[in-house]
Known about the structure:
By secondary structure, this protein is of the alpha+beta class.
Amino acid sequence: MRERYFFHIRDGDRVSVDDEGMEFATPREADLYGARVARDIGEEDRDYPDTVLSVVDARGHVVARHRIHRQLPN
């Protein structure tokens, strides 16, 4: 059975709340997607001194956290 997960981003004191979310079959799938989103955000041209993406299930439990780091070009 699929479950909805939300991907909230805290950047210092600001929080961007994901009201829509996405469905995944397992928490692990949602975690992997969250890690990929965090990595993609880090490719933007800015610094992320205190930014975290939280993966939250439909009951409000945090299943994973991913710190966002600026990704340097290869």
